[in-house]
Amino acid sequence: MTKPKLTGQDIIAMARHSIINLDNKEAEYAAQEALDAGLDPVDFIEKGFVEGMREIGDRFEEGKASLVQIFAASKIMDAGMNVLKPKLSKRDKGFCFFGNIAVNG
């Protein structure tokens, strides 16, 4: 049986979901799927990982998430970003900027 083809929106939603649900493996998988699908890394990071972090931050402000969850979510995002770094560092030497995020390649 073949794996169903994910759309770009599916992959971005998976990245966002991985942050919200603190799922390390899902973040890594989403990042690899984004690379394999040829998604724009800036869009993927901003609409996926950053939006997930924003939602965790909003939950924290509402008293529905703890500071520990914010730190855990940042570690999950790091796991996904680590999948992207080798590809990004081939494109640019030094720092890569994605909106408000800088990645040292």
Automatic annotation (TrEMBL):
Membrane-spanning parts: none
Name recorded for this polypeptide: B12-binding N-terminal domain-containing protein
Database matches in Gene3D superfamilies: Methionine synthase domain
SMART domains referenced in this protein's UniProt entry, alphabetically: B12-binding_2
Domain of life: Archaea
Record-annotated B12-binding N-terminal domain positions: 2-96
InterPro entries named among the record's database cross-references: Cbl-bd_cap, Meth_synthase_dom
